[in-house]
From TrEMBL:
SMART domains: AAA (SM00382). One of its GO terms (molecular function) is ATP binding. Residues 2-234 form the ABC transporter domain. One of its GO terms (cellular component) is plasma membrane. The keyword Nucleotide-binding applies. This is Urea ABC transporter, ATP-binding protein UrtD. Keywords: ATP-binding, Nucleotide-binding, Transport. Gene3D superfamilies: P-loop containing nucleotide triphosphate hydrolases (3.40.50.300).
């Protein structure tokens, strides 16, 4: 569970998050909103790239903002970024092992944990293959493997299937859907693809230019008239 209280972020005159109060109950959660609504900024606050002006974030009761960024990773906070982070010249294995090391995984467990993560995401290429030689869908699976290796507790996913065709997006969604039950970690998915959000998230919150405008069971939220208006004018969201 993540509890956000009175969270405000300011960049000069821009306030991308304003007095946000939100409880993400655990399991599979979604966060949606128009471009510039503050979703990535929210992830940046949780992962330590941005310091908020005010507010508290409790993750499973722990005061996340009191921990420096590297301690949050060791605590079990993981994230993917809109742009791929894997290093093209390094192998699939080394790219995942690097995160295992950074997040405090024991060296003696590394081989097993890296192969387990690759198996979990269903990556069928050789672990020794350089990431630069992989196709777009496989590279996104490497990003997911990096986010789940070891012992994640909260996995933040920022448009994890961006740019992929529907079939490969479905494959990514199927992996994300398994994370809460099989890895005992909660997921928070930020995405503009409402079919992916519907498929992966039990509950969804909606940000609109710094303000939380809806939160609840995903199917109800996607039908909410305020959400439909904020997101797409008068059209249905999904
Ligand atoms: N480091 C920064 N300095 C100044 N302004 C910033 C910074 N980071 C984000 N912003 C601004 O904050 C607002 C929210 O941006 P953010 O990237 O969080 O939105 P988003 O909801 O993730 O959008 P998208 O769906 O396009 O990824 C935008 O107006 C953006 O220009």
């Amino acid at each position: 569970m993540i509890e956000i209280r009175e969270l405000t972020v300011r960049f000069g005159g821009v306030t991308p998050i304003q007095a946000m109060d939100l409880t993400l109950p655990g399991g599979a959660c979604g966060l949606i909103g128009p471009n510039g609504a503050g979703k990535t900024t929210f992830f940046n606050v949780l992962s330590g790239f941005v310091t908020p002006a005010t507010g508290r974030v409790l993750a499973f009761g722990d005061d996340l903002l009191a921990l420096p960024g590297h301690r949050r990773a060791r605590w079990g906070l993981r994230r993917t970024f809109q742009t791929e982070q894997a290093i093209e010249q390094l192998s699939v294995y080394d790219n995942v092992a690097m995160v295992h090391e950074h997040t405090g995984g024991h060296r003696r467990d590394r081989h097993r944990d890296v192969l387990t993560a690759l198996d979990f995401v269903g990556l069928s290429v050789s672990p020794t293959a350089p990431v630069g030689a992989l196709g777009a869908g496989e590279r996104r699976l490497v990003e997911l493997a990096r986010a789940v290796v070891g012992r994640p507790r909260v996995v933040l996913l920022d448009e994890p299937a961006a740019g992929l065709p529907d079939e490969e997006t479905g494959r990514i969604g199927a992996v994300i859907r398994r994370i809460p039950a099989e890895l005992d970690a909660m997921t928070v998915l930020v995405d503009h693809d409402m079919s992916l959000v519907s498929a992966c998230c039990d509950v969804t919150a909606v940000l609109d230019f710094g303000r939380l405008i809806a939160a609840g069971p995903t199917q109800e939220v996607l039908r909410d008239e305020h959400v439909v208006r904020a997101y797409l004018g008068t059209e249905e969201v999904a």
